[in-house]
Specification:
alpha/beta, Rossmann fold, eight-stranded mixed beta sheet
């Protein structure tokens, strides 16, 4: 990798010879912010878990639809938690296409993702990037990056897309959501996408894929539909409530396929009254 020319979006303190899960996700999403080492890792994981790319693309499509829905409800500022690299279909591009004045704060704990994000977003004064643990809502909300850009007297769209299934029960995902809920004003929205399945639906044949993902990417906690719904305590769910991810307000036939009704994950959006 020493012979690879460093692009302007790759900060000088990032080792291009080491794979980054953030850049691997960028590769899976069809982005351009990745290197051969990341693509090699991504291809290896997909060889073991071929369905994974479709899963990731569905979470990204849900993000797009959720942001567009919030924009239609007048939301013009967003807090994207566990954002990774703002790659293909990112929040600020979707939001600013509707309103160039829309503001976004990206939050991630991954130093590589944050460094790349800051380099990519240089010059966009309506977007901030914060490196911290999203589980610490107080730390996130009092940060200069958030306080300097978001107006807590106006509704905010909080995004937890493909995030909470990486938070084990021992870290109290309900409490984390509640901390953000209590801090945002009336009229704000929360969007959550989450890996999961209905009672009795799990196929033992999926165990190997789950083990491979947990070992090669990150440990994941699957939750049932009612558990995802419980995360929205204090919010009013918008139609269609907690739904299979592709079935949450699909915009076109491209959002659906023959497996949509059995997709291993749910999405929902709620409004704080």
């Amino acid at each position: 990798m020493d012979t690879v020319e460093r692009p302007n979006w790759a900060p000088g303190d990032i080792d291009l010879g080491r794979p980054s899960i953030a850049r691997v996700y960028d590769y899976w999403l069809g982005g351009a912010h990745n290197f051969a080492i990341d693509r090699a890792v991504g291809d290896k994981v997909l060889a073991d878990v071929p369905i994974l790319k479709n899963v990731i693309l569905n979470h990204r499509a849900f993000l797009r639809r959720a942001v567009r829905f919030m924009l239609s409800q007048g939301i013009r500022q967003f807090l994207d938690l566990g954002s990774g690299i703002p790659t293909v279909g990112n929040v600020h591009e979707i939001a600013q296409a509707t309103d160039p004045g829309a503001r976004v704060v990206y939050v991630d704990i991954d130093a590589v993702a944050v460094a790349h994000s800051r380099a990519i977003l240089t010059g966009n004064e309506l977007v901030n990037v914060l490196q911290t643990d999203v589980r610490d809502a107080k730390q996130v909300l009092k940060s200069p990056e958030v306080q300097g850009l978001l107006d807590f007297d106006q509704p905010i769209g909080v995004l937890m897309v493909a995030l909470l299934h990486f938070v084990p029960d021992s870290d109290d995902p309900h409490g984390i959501v509640a901390d953000y809920r209590d801090a945002i004003p009336s009229g704000s929205y929360l969007a959550v996408s989450h890996a999961g399945y209905e009672e009795g639906e799990w196929d033992p044949a999926w165990d190997d894929a789950k083990t491979t993902y947990n070992r090669g990417v990150s440990e994941m906690t699957y939750r049932k539909k009612q558990d995802v719904g419980a995360l929205f305590d204090g919010f009013e769910l918008v139609e269609p409530g907690v739904a299979r991810l592709p079935l949450w307000q699909p915009e076109s036939p491209d959002d659906l396929d023959e497996n949509s009704a059995r997709f291993l994950g749910f999405g929902a959006v709620g409004r704080k009254p």
